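Entry 12.
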Amino acid sequence: MSEIDYQWFVSRAADPADALTQVFAGMLQSASRNGLPPQQAMGMPEDRFSALLERYFPAVNGVLAADGEAGACCAALRDQEIGDLVELLLAHAGSTSIETEWVAYAVAVGCMGENHLYQDMGFSDRQALSDLLERHFPALYAKNVGNMKWKKFFYKQLCERAEVNLCKAPSCQVCIDFDKCFGPEDDSGLTALAMLGGRTPPAKQEVRRLPQDWRRGLPDDYSGAVVAPLRFERFEEPSALAERVFGYDGENRCCYYRHRHTLTREVLDDNDNFYSERAYSEEVLAWRLLGGDWLRCSASAGSAGACWDHRLEYAVTPARPS
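Predicted 3D structure (tokens):
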């Protein structure tokens, strides 16, 4: 099958403005991009796939349903993995409708991708994916109280169901990989991927959008009293587990600031193996107020014996933190 883009599917949809139509169009485009037959890419039985096309893309049902059989060497393992994820999602579904089942397959197949889940599902940001999950799988959505990245959260749930623990740290709060599981999901993650691939990442990375993230920590009373950033620059030092983010307004003046760093220590587990755990972390957030002052938020956390002590302080200052 030659590659077919998103607009090709949407232009042939029964209702191009429908939210689920756009979700399924994104997944079908991913199938086309990866050279997979659509039915295999969606991971569902033929009758259910045909019913999905008939409901949302009636103009292409015969064309896509007749496309060739899957030939991937790992198809069986992939189908089993998709099946486990679909079972997890449907166990927490808010309804037994066929639409919810289709969404479960779309989410499960999205988890097979290499990018953030919201990206592989064609969403513009993580919040859109979260809204979809809350609407169709409210019980599972409610379990993610720590706001873990969705793909990691799903596989953590599968591990718990199978009574398998692949994490060496005793808890997420002290794990050195905490930010990889709970950090913001944006394009800045490509820097970490470059490091893992043995490439040298840029010292400075411009990030056009950090959806919703710059408002994190901003009190509701100040939501209309700050200057909104339009673009961002991000500086990262992976070896020190540290980063800085600057946000700029339409006049290219800094109106948002964030820095954070983490200190780790080596400890022994019950089997006398060393692993790194988080010993202390600090984050400073700041927003420029409409009057020119800055609202500063300082958050720190450190282990105190068996406890994890969190501190949060707000202050209005005349200058941006540095």
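Annotation: Residues 204 and 235 are 5 Å apart (CA to CA). The chain has a mean pLDDT of 75.
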